[in-house]
């Protein structure tokens, strides 16, 4: 789940989320971000300084990887001279390096592909949040309610969040889809989907 | 001739009513998913992979051949009609294809793309039949250090050659490598990066990574931009080609196939370079240069053929070396692994029947697409009229179904969402997705080879460098890595010279 937390930290609107800011501000300062903080103050248009969140994410990932690697027993055997430790350590160091260069690139005005199309847009984090909530509800309910009910709720909820206003039609489509996939894939093709509370009825 | 006999056996395995039906099913749903805007071939395969989990390996692979070509076919249709390339390899097709559709020649554009894909797919699959065994013979002589070198090459090349920014490519690659490290270490059995979460001990499934980053990420990205309006869809007339269209198309088809296959077969050659080369070549050779930029049929025929040939070409390193170089191959490799089959030089000896069935399935799927789907294009286009809320709700629905089915635990759904958020961030910041996917699957393999190499040399570091083959590969890696430095130096020098001159 650590990955998820950090991802959210990197994605959320930095101006709004103070909780997430604590999360990512520390590492942004640590690896080559010292100059970035001062640069953020004098942000020029055309530079996409939100990219520093990505650098922060990479650095946090680097810390996680190295902390975990340090915990590993460094034992070696004749059939495995280096053990499981070196690869994560190399990855951690590379993560710091890439985070630093990325920050440098950002401060110098670098940007990813088709930046003009996306960078300026205000992203609608409310819709994203609601969509995530619907998704998590499915994850929590699937084992109890079974795929047909929780999957239908997922489809219905997601369609409503994304702007569908024909509630009953959408619900009908969702239930048809849930039943069709359950009978087609779980019973027909042997896919492991749970029946949940409808066990014995379906 | 052995190969041809094995291939005929493969055909024999397919040509039963039940298996043909499965191939048809694969082709149909492959096309349907490939057509969905924003999703490409790799996505079609990743989303559909879980539905094969309950099948026999043979049938699963027949379905796969169908999904593989169906997904590509669907992707190019969307690219031409919606002006939205679902993947980077369709970018060039869109240049002329969308213009043709605008000019009322959408039917011809789709026809030349479809027939060109068939021609290129057939040529490239035949080439695959002959080239793969040769690659296998070469690969059988390679040891762990050589494999390590080739894998490092594939990783470095995907991260730095594709996309516009190397640093973002490497960031994506490193995230993928970290995800690949999660789980129980294969040699010592120690848990890495699980932080005490028992569900992480088996690692994160590549299907969950691909579906999360591509499909869930795309759904979140759409939600984030509040783009609920429908895209403009250009009506297609009858899908056919006149005599002059045929005359202008067959050359580009053949040249595109010839360009695409070798690029696909080389680790990390990719489809972008050959499609672009094909476009440039056709523009130079064309007698209708004026039409380029306004909808020239050659500009659709060539790149589309190159795209398909390159996709089939990537199966060579995938089957012969176990080396996936694009997202599609990475997901296919994962499919092999779910059946306990490890692609590589020994695959053709151990699982000969299965591989040849897969290859025969590619031929059959390709032919089915041409015969059955071309007349149906206008029907398929109706799929594009699905309102966005339903479309993306459906994508989330199927993504969740597939991810849950990989292990039967709802934990997978949380991982899926986490990766979807990473995918959302990558879209927002223009970070390429492919290096991450390739890193997840290739990273652990490279680590295993490195440790095996050291084991063979008794811990001597020189064991990592191996012999001349590995040295050559490392030389190539150095060239790729140092290339931007060289061009930077050249720019600096010319700038200095200009400064002196003024």
Automatic annotation (TrEMBL), chain A:
Residues 53-194 form the DUF1468 domain. Residues 12-29 have a biased composition (Low complexity). The chain crosses the membrane at residues 51-74, 86-104, 128-156, 168-193. Residues 1-41 are annotated as: Disordered. Keywords: Membrane, Transmembrane, Transmembrane helix. It holds the Pfam family TctB. InterPro entries: DUF1468. It comes from the Bacteria. This is Putative tricarboxylic transport membrane protein. It comes from Glycomyces sambucus. The lineage of its organism: Bacteria, Bacillati, Actinomycetota, Actinomycetes, Glycomycetales.
From TrEMBL, chain B:
Residues 20-437 form the DUF112 domain. InterPro entries: DUF112_TM. The chain crosses the membrane at residues 20-49, 109-132, 138-162, 169-188, 200-221, 318-341, 353-377, 389-407, 463-486. Keywords: Membrane, Transmembrane, Transmembrane helix. The keyword Transmembrane helix applies. The keyword Electron transport does not apply. Signal peptide: none annotated. This is Putative tricarboxylic transport membrane protein. It comes from Glycomyces sambucus.
């Amino acid at each position: 789940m650590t990955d998820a937390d950090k991802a959210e930290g990197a994605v959320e609107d930095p101006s709004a989320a103070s909780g997430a800011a604590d999360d990512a501000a520390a590492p942004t300062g640590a690896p080559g971000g010292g100059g970035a903080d001062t640069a953020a103050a004098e942000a020029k248009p055309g530079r996409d300084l939100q990219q520093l969140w990505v650098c922060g994410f990479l650095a946090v990932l680097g810390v996680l990887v190295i902390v975990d690697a340090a915990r590993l027993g460094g034992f070696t055997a004749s059939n495995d001279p280096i053990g499981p430790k070196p690869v994560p350590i190399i990855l951690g160091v590379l993560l710091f390096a890439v985070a630093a260069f990325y920050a440098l690139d950002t401060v110098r005005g670098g940007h990813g592909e088709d930046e003009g199309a996306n960078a300026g847009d205000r992203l609608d984090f409310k819709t994203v949040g609601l969509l995530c909530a619907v998704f998590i509800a499915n994850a929590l309910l699937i084992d109890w309610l079974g795929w047909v009910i929780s999957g239908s709720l997922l489809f219905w909820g997601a369609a409503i969040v994304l702007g569908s206003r024909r509630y009953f039609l959408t619900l009908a489509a969702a239930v048809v889809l849930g039943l069709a996939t359950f009978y087609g894939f779980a019973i027909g093709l042997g896919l492991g989907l749970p029946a949940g509370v409808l066990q014995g009825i379906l | 001739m052995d190969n041809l006999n094995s291939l005929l056996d493969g055909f024999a395995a397919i040509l039963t009513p039940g298996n043909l039906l499965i191939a048809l099913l694969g082709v149909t749903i492959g096309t349907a998913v490939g057509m969905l805007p924003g999703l490409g071939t790799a996505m079609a395969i990743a989303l559909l992979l879980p539905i094969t989990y309950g099948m026999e390996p043979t049938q699963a692979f027949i379905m796969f051949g169908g999904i593989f070509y169906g997904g590509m076919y669907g992707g190019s249709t969307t690219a031409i009609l919606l002006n939205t390339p679902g993947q980077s390899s369709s970018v060039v097709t869109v240049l002329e294809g969308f213009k043709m559709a605008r000019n009322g020649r959408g039917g011809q554009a789709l026809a030349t793309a479809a027939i060109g894909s068939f021609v290129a797919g057939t040529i490239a699959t035949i080439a695959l039949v002959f080239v793969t065994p040769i690659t296998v013979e070469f690969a059988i002589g390679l040891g762990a250090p050589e494999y390590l070198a080739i894998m490092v090459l594939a990783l470095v090349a995907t991260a730095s050659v594709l996309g516009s920014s190397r640093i973002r490519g490497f960031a994506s690659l490193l995230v993928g490598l970290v995800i690949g490290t999660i789980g129980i270490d294969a040699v010592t059995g120690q848990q890495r990066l699980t932080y005490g979460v028992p569900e992480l001990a088996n690692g994160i499934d590549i299907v969950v990574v691909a579906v999360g980053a591509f499909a869930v990420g795309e759904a979140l990205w759409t939600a984030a931009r509040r783009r609920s309006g429908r895209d403009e869809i250009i009506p297609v007339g009858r899908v056919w080609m006149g005599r002059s269209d045929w005359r202008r198309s067959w050359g580009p088809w053949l040249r595109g196939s010839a360009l695409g296959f070798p690029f696909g077969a080389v680790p990390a050659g990719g489809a972008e370079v050959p499609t672009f080369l094909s476009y440039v070549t056709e523009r130079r050779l064309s007698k209708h240069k004026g039409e380029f930029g306004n909808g020239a049929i050659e500009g659709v025929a060539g790149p589309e053929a190159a795209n398909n040939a390159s996709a089939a070409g990537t199966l060579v390193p995938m089957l012969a070396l176990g080396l996936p170089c694009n997202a599609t191959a990475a997901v296919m490799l994962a499919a092999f692994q779910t059946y306990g089959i490890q692609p590589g030089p020994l695959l053709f000896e151990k699982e000969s029947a299965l591989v040849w069935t897969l290859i025969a399935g590619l031929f059959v799927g390709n032919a089915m697409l041409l015969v059955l789907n071309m007349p149906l294009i206008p029907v398929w286009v109706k799929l594009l009229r699905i309102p966005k809320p339903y479309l993306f709700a459906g994508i989330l629905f199927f993504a969740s179904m597939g991810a849950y089915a990989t292990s039967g635990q709802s934990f997978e759904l949380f991982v899926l969402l986490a990766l979807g958020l990473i995918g959302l961030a990558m879209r927002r910041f223009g970070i390429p997705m492919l290096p991450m996917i390739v890193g997840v699957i290739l990273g652990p393999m490279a680590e295993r080879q490195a440790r095996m190499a050291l084991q063979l040399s008794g811990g001597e570091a020189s064991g990592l460098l191996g012999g001349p083959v590995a040295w050559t590969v490392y030389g190539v890696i150095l060239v790729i890595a140092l290339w931007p430095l060289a061009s930077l130096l050249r720019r600096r020098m010319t700038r200095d010279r200009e400064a002196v001159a003024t």
